[in-house]
Specification:
The longest helix is centred in the first third of the chain and has 20 residues. The chain contains five helices and 29 strands. It is mainly β. The N terminus is likely disordered.
Length: 623
């Protein structure tokens, strides 16, 4: 069935090409129309620390998942992994993302073209669905983004911007890769533009047996979007994404599992309209995410298999209205209104008689919010002041105020100073409120206050770009499970303090050589799982003619992989990427990547050994 879905995505890409060829060739794209995805705000104007990972970096990585790329490119960001392929959900899952030590419990918000992505029942992110195929860039905001996006952006936000055609015509690529553990990866993507009409389609299929017995995995992903320019001032569009995954989990070495698997089917869809009138820029977006999940929790090798399967459906739907007014020179006033309705349904089914249900649960929440943010530049934008506030109301916890303020100073074209103060929060999810023994329907949101300072400088005529960021985070009201009258109960009692420093630099040595590095140091007031104290990434690129070589070094110190028992991990990996492009009417690129060249032994989740040296090779054509 997976192959047919992937074939359908490829056929839809071909159909788009045929459709575009029949559009009136006499229609010209209005000059004022900007063919970019609908977005709530320009993150580069925020006084927050922002990292942008572009398409060239994504392509050079030869990765099909975005998460390992972000770990290498963004200081302060880390993701858990349990093996060679697949993150999964449910017990023993991986793919937990944290920024500056904040992230457990879905405190970092993922979006695709500004559309929030998270499962409605348990509130977790969906790591297996964040694929690199058809992505133009990724914007990572480190620090609370709750002013603009509300709950789940407590620790930061990651917005995946999909690619689209900018010029009339058809373009695209197709790729096939093969490697260790019988891994196969196939991808196709195409962009079409004819006058006012634009469309993109992509499909991806990944398969692997994994680096451990019982860790096989497959993923299929399909994406389709269309845009139409109504006039030089208005554009409308729609998109839909579908993904199907099945991941097997062998458990840990200490507690192995048999027959533990997750089967996920997910979809997202949205429609938008945006305007651009010079002094007025904004739009509206309506969206829906849905999922159908089935899980076998497995059993110990010496235990009897469980007689039931866990099932759940979830949804997350809403709309966003936003407008930025530029009434006088140097000013921007952004206004926004959000509404979200989210929830889900879960139950157990008997394996022998699926019509028999037990432990059934169904619930939902509603949230509505409004925000205003103002930015004013002085002296030709040498100084820009930024401040805003959000009021969010929930049917469960009532009102939550979210303030943010900061400034940007640009002494010259080659330097900038940013300072910001902001509040972030995360609303309790349905599991914490209503499910299982520790449930507490009276929980309130978690929140934190974030203070950060960033200095950035361009040197050597712009060939060297370097920055340093300092931050302090004070977290309050964290949800923790405590014993109340001898029984477990979720309570708002936790607190934490994180602080640290991040450094990054990129140096374009000459037309063939470039180098980059990023380093982050994190200090926490208590042991924190899956948040390394030190993280260093160094990359050297060499591009002689049609060849491209990249040598990466990734080093981690003091990573806590288990709290009970307390286990820490240090490791350093060396990776190589190489590619050769054979030029022609249809360029063909042959690539080879070797990870963990030194064959280091390490784990990120205690008891889940990561693979040693691995190989992936492939071919890609562009048209």
């Amino acid at each position: 069935m997976v192959d047919f879905r992937f074939l359908a995505a490829a056929l839809s890409a071909t159909a788009l090409t045929v459709f575009a060829d029949n559009i009136d060739e006499g229609i010209n794209l209005p000059e004022a129309v900007v063919t970019a995805p609908a977005k709530v705000h320009n993150v580069e104007l925020l006084p927050l620390n922002v990292s942008i990972v572009d398409s060239a970096t994504i392509e050079r990585s030869a990765e099909t998942s975005l998460l390992p790329i972000l770990v290498n490119q963004v200081p302060g960001l880390f993701v858990t992994e349990r093996g060679f392929a697949g993150y999964g959900v449910s017990g023993g899952s991986a793919g937990a993302v944290n920024i500056r030590g904040v992230g457990q419990g879905n405190k970092v918000l993922f979006m695709i073209d500004g559309q929030p992505q998270w499962a409605g029942v348990f509130g977790h992110s969906l790591p297996d669905t964040y694929v690199a195929n058809g992505v133009e860039r990724v914007e990572v905001v480190k620090g609370p983004s709750s002013l603009i996006y509300g709950s789940n952006a407590m620790g930061g936000s990651i917005n995946i911007i999909t690619s689209r055609a900018k010029n009339d015509g058809v373009s695209g690529r197709a790729r096939a890769m093969f490697g260790s553990f019988t891994t196969e990866k196939f991808a196709v993507a195409t962009n079409v533009r004819r006058g006012r009409f634009g469309a993109s389609a992509s499909g991806q299929l990944d398969r692997s047996n994994g680096n451990r017995r019982g860790s096989d995995f497959w993923l299929a992903n399909e994406f389709l979007q269309m845009q139409y320019s109504l006039s030089k001032n208005w554009e409308t569009g729609a998109n839909v994404t579908m993904s199907q995954t099945k991941a097997n989990n062998p458990g840990t070495l200490q507690s192995p599992l048999e027959s533990m698997w997750t089967d996920l089917q997910r979809g997202t869809a949205s429609v938008y309209a945006k305007n651009h009138y010079g002094k007025f820029t904004g739009g509206a977006q309506g969206y829906i995410n849905w999922g159908r999940n089935k899980v076998d929790d497995g059993h110990a090798p010496d235990a009897a298999p469980k007689d039931y399967l866990f099932n759940s459906t979830d949804y997350n739907m809403g709309f966003m209205l936003y407008e930025t007014l530029s009434m006088w020179k140097g000013s921007d006033i952004s206004l926004g209104l959000d509404f979200v309705h989210w929830g889900g349904h879960n139950w157990n089914t008997d394996k022998e008689n699926p019509s028999l249900r037990s432990s059934e649960f169904r619930e939902h929440e509603n949230e509505v919010a409004g925000y205003v943010m103002a930015q004013q530049g002085f002296w030709g934008d040498v100084l820009s002041l930024n401040a805003g506030v959000r009021l969010q109301h929930s049917s469960q916890y009532g009102n939550e105020w979210v303030p943010q303020a900061g400034f940007i100073v640009k002494p010259g074209w080659d330097s900038s100073i940013k300072f910001s103060f902001g509040k972030g929060f995360r609303a309790p999810n349905l599991r914490e409120l209503y499910l299982y023994a520790p449930a507490n329907p009276d929980l309130k949101p978690e929140y934190l206050y974030n203070y950060e300072l960033e200095l950035r400088r361009m040197m050597l005529g712009g060939r060297l770009n370097a920055g340093i960021a300092l931050f302090y985070i004070d977290g309050k009201n964290m949800i923790q499970t405590q014993r109340i009258d001898g029984r477990p109960k979720n309570m708002n009692t936790g607190s934490f303090k994180n602080s640290g420093v991040e450094v990054d630099a990129t140096f374009f040595i000459d037309s063939r050589w470039s180098a980059g590095m990023n380093y982050s140091y994190l200090h926490t007031d208590r042991p924190l799982l899956s948040a390394p104290k030190n993280k260093l990434n160094v990359e050297v690129n060499f591009r002689p003619g049609d060849f491209h070589f990249t040598l990466e070094s990734n080093t981690i110190w003091s990573l806590i992989t288990s709290e009970e028992p307390l286990k820490k991990q240090d490791y350093s990996l060396l990776n190589l990427r190489s590619a050769y492009t054979m030029q022609g009417k249809v360029p063909v690129t042959y690539s080879l990547k070797i990870d963990n060249i030194l064959d280091k032994h390490y784990d990120i989740i205690y008891g889940c050994p990561m693979p040693g040296v691995t190989f992936m090779g492939g071919v890609e054509i562009k048209f």
